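Data deposition worksheet. Section B asks for the primary sequence of the deposited chain exactly as it was used as input, without tags or linkers unless they were present during the calculation. Section C holds the resulting structure in token form. Section D is free text for depositor observations; keep each observation to a single sentence. Incomplete worksheets are returned to the depositor.
Section A, Depositor: J.P.
Section B:
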Amino acid sequence: MSIMSVSFQTIDVFTHTRFLGNPLAIIILHHSDLDSDSNCLSQSLTQQQKQLLAREFNLSETVFIHTTQGNYDDPNEPFVIDIFTTTEELPFAGHPTIGAGWFLAQQWKTRTEFRLSTKAGEILVKKLPGKRSNEDVKFVKLRVPIDFKTHPPYHSPNLSTLKSKLHQSQLEPDDYVNGVDGAEPVASIVKGMSFVLIQLQNELGLAKFQPLHAITDAQLCIPDDHLGDWKGFSSLYVFVVLPQVTNYHSSIFDGVDDTNDTNDANKTIRIRARMFESGGFEDPATGSAASTLCGWLAVQKGIGKWRFEVIQGVEIGRESRIGVFVEVDENSVVNKIELVGGAVKVLDGHIDI
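Section C:
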């Protein structure tokens, strides 16, 4: 029985400090070019093998990067990536895509951009140079593949129950901007990936929000019956818009030489957020949720280009910084979302399959 050995690396994404941010496993699969004389053995895994490896790492996501000599040499040939949770494949997710982009960006000194091919579409990734010319690549920026949709505000007895004292014993009705029984905005970054956006009044309320451990009744799962054909992955994204003067003195944009125009070049809208799924899971950093929330907030602000910093994961000891640029056109349509993030290497090795 032949054994194939594949290399892997784990990194923490949306941070430059080990053991903060959101962990990600990267598995590198090398393939021979079809027209190459190389004797390199192509490394191919079945869907089942990929799923087993993702389950073995037991992280929120594992990304598989397919490399050839062609996509290393040709800027127009994309790197195919596959994104898996412990139970399923995803068409797109923010932190695996930023992580894959950051990992590949370390491979060249002079190349400034390349492409990733995901199930949701092709993504252009750009290095963001640091303000010091000799600085390593700290951040990458990618244009998120979007099919952005704002759904009608959602109200139901189930959602009220999720916000009530029954599940949020430390919160009062006044802690919610829209109240316990008020409707909440719902938006989708792409079809099949949606978020219920619950705004709280302040960071103290955000810290008191409890993971959804007690939800076992299917009727009390995170609502998605209102989504119709857009039904799929759904979770709660609970957030606070921070005042301009906050205790977070540093910013993800401080060390980046970025030339994006915004409505106010010196103004970053800062947000504190937490993401919850049924069963008690809380995610340290969620690029797709941050992109969705910032898209929705940008539409409320109006036409123009808007810059956001989302700070997530603080309450579970894995502070993450997510940068988001959103462009809203004259028809109040989100026509571009760009995600910014960095990462740090934690460990690497090989797996025998």
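Section D:
The chain has a mean pLDDT of 88.
The chain has six helices and 18 strands.
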